[in-house]
Amino acid sequence: MGFYTWKLIDLGTIAAGNTTSGSWTSDDEYTIKRMYVVEYTSTAVGLQFLTATLRIDDYTFTKDKVCLKIFEPDNPINPELNIPISKGKTFYYSVTNNHGSSSISAYIILELHK
Length: 114
Prior knowledge:
By secondary structure, this protein is mainly β. 0% of the residues lie in helices and 54% in strands. The protein has one domain (3-52, 62-113): Jelly Rolls, CATH 2.60.120.230.
C-alpha cells in the first residue's frame, strides 16, 4: 500500500453557529491513510471552532463529535486512520462552526493510498 492521490472536499463558508454536511462516493478501492483539514478564511479564525461527525456508510469513526483542529496538516499528533473505503462506499461529513460570530471556510483533504 502506497500513496495514490489526494481527494479535496470544499466545505465552503460555514456561518457562525451553522452546520454543513455532504458526502463523497469512492470511485475505486482506497485506504484513507490520513485526513487533513485546512482553513482558507482570509482572516484565520481557527479550526478549534469546527467540530464534525465523520462516517463511511454505516461505520461512524467519530464518537459523537471531534474537533477538526486535530486534523491540521502540521499537527504532530494528526492520527493515522488507515480506514478502507471500497468502490461505491460513501464518506459522509457533518461539520459545525461553533464560533459565536465568525464564518469559517475550510477544506477536508483525504490522503488516499492503494
